[in-house]
Amino acid sequence: MTSATDAFIAEKRALLDCLERFATTADYQRLVEIVAPLAAGDLEPWLAEWLITRAFGLGERPIDMVVRPGGMQAVEQHLMQIGAGGVG
């Protein structure tokens, strides 16, 4: 395995560790509540993937934003816009 592959794996592990920590918070639960009415079924796997993927409308990964002042509110608003069909 190359050092580039090692670095890639380490980056993904760190990202998933961050998601795992965030998933235990009240803020995460709030996001789950926001996405719940958007479609039938369990949207939590979609939310987890969305949080660690660069969101076009936000310009970065939502998981990176939620820890900064005002970031959680921006992420909430973006999810509500997605639910209203205003954002892809």
Description of the structure:
The chain has one domain. It has five helices and no strands. It has helices at residues 3-22, 26-35, 44-51, 62-65, 71-83. The model has no long low-confidence stretch (mean pLDDT 92).
Descriptive tags:
88 residues, mainly alpha, 5 helices, 0% strand
Q: Could you tell me the strand content as a percent range?
A: under 5%
User: How many structural units, i.e. domains?
Assistant: 1
Low-pLDDT regions? none
Oligomer: single chain
Specify the overall morphology. globular
Order of helices and strands: HHHHH
Helix content: 55-70%
| E-strand count | 0
Helix-strand layout with pairing:
Elements: H1 3-22, H2 26-35, H3 44-51, H4 62-65, H5 71-83
Give a summary of the structure in a few sentences.
This protein has five helices and no strands. The protein has helices spanning 3-22, 26-35, 44-51, 62-65, 71-83.
